[in-house]
Amino acid sequence: MAETDRDRRRLLRTVVAGGIGAGLVTAGGASSARAEPAAREDVAGEEGEVRVAVLLYDGFTALDAVGPYEVLCRVPGVTVTTVAERAGRVRTDTGELSLVAERSLESVTRAEILLVPGGGQRGTTATMANPAVLDWIRHIHRRTVWTTSVCTGSLILGAAGLLRGLPATTYWASRPYLAEVGAVYTPGRFVEAGKIVTAAGVSAGIDMGLHLAARLAGDQVGRAMQLAVEYDPDPPFDTGSPENASPELQRLALRLLADAAT
Amino acid sequence: MAETDRDRRRLLRTVVAGGIGAGLVTAGGASSARAEPAAREDVAGEEGEVRVAVLLYDGFTALDAVGPYEVLCRVPGVTVTTVAERAGRVRTDTGELSLVAERSLESVTRAEILLVPGGGQRGTTATMANPAVLDWIRHIHRRTVWTTSVCTGSLILGAAGLLRGLPATTYWASRPYLAEVGAVYTPGRFVEAGKIVTAAGVSAGIDMGLHLAARLAGDQVGRAMQLAVEYDPDPPFDTGSPENASPELQRLALRLLADAAT
Predict the structure, then answer these.
(1) What ipTM does this complex have?
(2) DJ-1/PfpI domain spans which residues (chains A, B) (predicted)?
(3) Contact present, B93 and B150 (Cβ < 8 Å)
(4) Has residue A55 got a pLDDT over 60?
């Protein structure tokens, strides 16, 4: 496992340093097929780019997308774009906030990192049944370095057939559904299975994002990004996981979610 | 202080329950000037709304706005809207992500909660020097129940003249600038000064949001919202505050921020 981790990190650093041959032409167009990975531990190379594609869909949860975005976007060599069936405004699960998708599915054919956020029940299930989106996910996944999800985004990866037999996590209340897409629920703030990384609910994407930042550019950049977003959490309660929440509190949380959903 | 806290909470619960007289007509239009606060501890009343206005401006930081939004939007009685000089797409500090402002400044004349996110240096300083935005902030602040900020958003509140002589916090690297707007830097994940609540950098808005959710609707709803966003943080490093970061790491964080800024 540690060996695999090192291999992946080496691969990523090579990608960042300028592409590992014709297969990974960089978004900047200035691909230099360097044979050796970048030597520097602290900052990834300037010559290449790691393209992060964040899938947006009607009913996604804003923080699922924005958490990892915020800690990945400033990693040297990383560029982020938002992608949806159609470019333009995409509504979140509450209907009260919209993000802009910069690109349509057709216009994005490669990404080194794919991020699929979770959403409310309506948005998640509709996306799990949307062949255009699932085809696109499978296509992008073929050549990603990391394919990632937050919250119920793992169910969407699962619906695309990417999690069969693999350990994964998801939103706490959706854990039973992982089996339906062939995945094996595994506890963890995020779970790695080869190049697939699934994070737990909503805010867990921040922890996963920092982990990926460190993999991309070294621990020192990961530490710096944690400072950059002043991520020194001090929640007022200790009820952030169902293990610390009574059944009554769990029901209340689910009712608040359902009541606010569109 | 505890007494003031109780008073404020009572006020908020009264607002949620349907307005405290002509001064606080609810957004839903169905203002019933109840004399007594709502009795229920767990869920705020259905009759009124607490309107949260999130200011967006070119160069704001996405997570500053989305963190508190995500934990406030599902609190019973709360409605959230995004506001900018002009309605429509508003770019974040990296230029790679945009959120949609649903409303223009002119179209929003009241809000029970004002939230001012921070931004990159360009966005923050431009907003601190924008009379239209500062006038709007002052106008809204006059009748808010809470006026809040995340990160360098406190410097914008300060530029509007709202922090003179008050304890406040801000982004770790911007602490020295609080004095320039007459505020007194005070350590804390968030700092309350009467009805003004300022949060530390970026991710601190999540902690502040949960605190406000509990104030709005009681601790049980606060706990439920922490579970709803599965906020059980487990960062890979411990460098989320400058107190835990070497000067070298602080310089690296600031360099990454500067390099990614537009």
Answers:
(1) 0.84
(2) 51-213
(3) no
(4) yes
Report the greatest alpha carbon distance in chain B. 58
Across the range A153-165, mean pLDDT stands at 98
Test A252 with B151 for CB contact under 8 angstroms.
no
φ and ψ of B234, to 5 deg: -145, 65
pTM of the full predicted structure?
Answer: 0.85
DSSP assigned state of A37: P
Question: Which of the following is catalytic: B15, B55, B113, B151?
Answer: B151
Closest CA to B80 of A187, A222, A262, A155: A262
As a whole number of angstroms, the distance between CA B206 and CA A78 comes to: 25
Residue B207's contacts (CB-CB under 8 Å, 6 or more residues apart) are A233, A234, A235, A236, B189, B190, B199
| pLDDT of amino acid A261 | 87
Contacts of A79 (CB under 8 A, 6+ apart): A27, A49, A50, A51, A52, B96
> Which tokens go with A168?
């994964």
Strands A190-193, A196-199: pairing kind: antiparallel
- How much is the average pLDDT of A145-149? 98
Torsion of CA B50, B55, B61, B63, to 10 degrees: 10
Q: Which of B219, B228, B240 sits opposite A231 (nearest CB)?
A: B240
**Which structure tokens are listed for B117?**
């996110």
Cβ neighbour number for residue B23 with a 10 Å cutoff: 8
What are the residue boundaries of the structural domains of chain A, listed by start?
Answer: 5-260
What 8-state DSSP symbol labels residue A92?
Answer: B
Fold of B5-260: Rossmann fold (3.40.50)
